[in-house]
Amino acid sequence: MRGVIDYRIARRALVREVTRGVVPLTEVCDAHPELLRAARNVGQPTARTCPICRLADDRADVPLDENSTLRVVTYVFGDDLRRLSGHVVWTPEELDALAARHRSFTAYRVECCLVCGWHHLMESFLLGRAYAG
Ligand SMILES: [Zn+2]
Question: Which of 23, 81, 83, 131 has the fewest CB atoms within 10 Å of its CB?
Fold first, then answer.
């Protein structure tokens, strides 16, 4: 993958701010209804736990839910995609097919919690024929 940008450091910093009460929950748990719908219907499950749900469970002293409520949704953006720009990709196979058909575009992976509405960009990367081989 080319042009990978990892947003984990920004994510960690934001979670820290929420923990310290600098950033209110309402500002980080405000996933758009369309993102929530995509997360519920086509989001890929992940082994990670939602940092905000974990925070709430820690404070309430309840055990962590075993099933992660986090889902990962992949969006693609780029002029080469034309009307597909901004489209949610359902499967890795669909992403591969787009990469084979288009010259260049950017994929964004966003994590979204089905319970609290937390969402954060995880990583972005370049795909397309321009970067193949
Ligand atoms: Zn959550």
Answer: 83
Residues 79 and 103 sit within 8 Å (Cβ to Cβ): no
Count of beta carbons in the 10 Å neighbourhood of residue 93 = 9
DSSP state, residue 67: S
Residue 81 confidence (pLDDT): 96
Q: CA 43 to CA 34: how far, in whole Å?
A: 12
Report CA(56)–ligand 1 centroid distance (Å): 9
CA 58 / ligand 1 centre spacing (Å): 13
pLDDT tens for 4-47 read 999 999 999 999 999 999 999 999 999 999 999 999 999 999 98
The parent domain of residue 46 ranges over 2-131
| Ligand 1 midpoint to CA 89 (Å) | 22
Encode pLDDT of 79-106 as tens digits: 999 999 999 999 999 999 999 999 999 9
Domains: count for the chain: 1
- Distance from Cα 53 to the centre of ligand 1, integer Å: 4
Distance (angstroms) between ligand 1 centre and the Cα of 2 equals 30
Give me 35's structure tokens: 């993102």
